[in-house]
Amino acid sequence: MRAFRVVAAAVLGAVVLAGCGPSGSGGDDAPPKASAQPATSAGPSPPADAGASPSASPTAGRLPAPGETLVRVTRTGGFAGQTHTLVVKGDGSFTRLDVKARPTGTGRLTESELTGLRTALREADFARLPRIATGGPTIYDGFSYAFVHGGFEVAADQGSMPESLTKVLDALPPFTAAQDAP
Predict the structure, then answer these.
(1) CA dist., res. 25 & res. 43, Å (int)
(2) What is the reported pTM?
């Protein structure tokens, strides 16, 4: 039953996320345009690239433009069985979406909050995380999460959340405006 919930959460997250993007061509989720200069050369690499992983995503090392999506996280479940999505842009602006992908609020992270989120995302190393995290204890009425960042999607139940994703959650703004209140 637990595996079903994880898969169902991942599918629901994918459906919600698919409906969040702009219609038509272009938009903020379009892949970056190729530059006139090649990303790699036939000559030796500069020392700055010495620690780069060959399996890393082409977007993993670059910062998204201000209007591009930095991270999208969907949270489902809980006692009330609600679904909420947060979309954080490269400039720190964020939008809260309901289950039908309708905006329910907006805001902006401070520079220090945005830096903390970027650090947590980089340290999470999405390319190496399991697509669906499993193995933790079942938390009845807990939340399931679907993260989309740098071309990778990762899903996890609250009880199976890798520590690196917990740090990403901690760096995000609240999923609902009610959580903003003191």
Answers:
(1) 36
(2) 0.62
Q: Looking at beta carbons, which pairs linking 80-88 to residues 24 or more positions away fall under 8 Å?
A: 83/12, 83/16, 84/175, 84/176, 85/16, 85/17, 85/20, 86/172, 86/173, 86/175, 87/20, 88/117, 88/172, 88/173
CA–CA separation, 117 and 111 (whole Å): 10
For the chain, residues with pLDDT lower than 50 are 1-2, 4, 6-7, 11-12, 14-60, 181-182
The full length of the chain comes to 182
The two tokens of residue 44 are: 């030796």
Tell me the one-letter amino acid at 47: P
Strand partners, 146: 74, 155
Q: What is the pLDDT of residue 38?
A: 38
